[in-house]
Amino acid sequence: MFYADRGAIRQEIASLVAVFHPGVRYIKWVVEYNVTLEELIEREKEAREIRAREADWEFIKSQPPRLRIALEFYVETGDLYVAAKIAGITVEEFNELRIKARIPHVN
Questions:
Q1: Where are the domains of the chain?
Q2: Which of 46, 73, 84, 105 could anchor a disulfide with 94, C-beta 3.0 to 4.6 Å?
Q3: Taking residues 32-41, what's their average pLDDT?
Q4: DSSP codes joined into one string, 19-84
Q5: Max CA separation in the chain (angstroms)
């Protein structure tokens, strides 16, 4: 497809990213850093694998349900803000919990 303006390109990328990956925050990477959507999905998969491998699952499973679910969500997505909202605590408090659970912050 040919687009006359960059706004139309961004809109098309936004719709593609929303379909293939719920993390629409990756639009910036696709547009500004010239990274393909496949590369972004692969990076996210690698980050998820690292978080899952390094996490202290015994600690995570010993937490109350709300915190356990939030920690599991963070392992899957890497989204600190949403995980903190799920846990019902501040981002700073959740980050401390993440460290106790030995879940690395992977970019």
A1: 55-107
A2: 84
A3: 72
A4: HH-S-GGGHHHHHHS---HHHHHHHHHHHHHHHHHHS-HHHHHTS-HHHHHHHHHHHHH--HHHHH
A5: 55
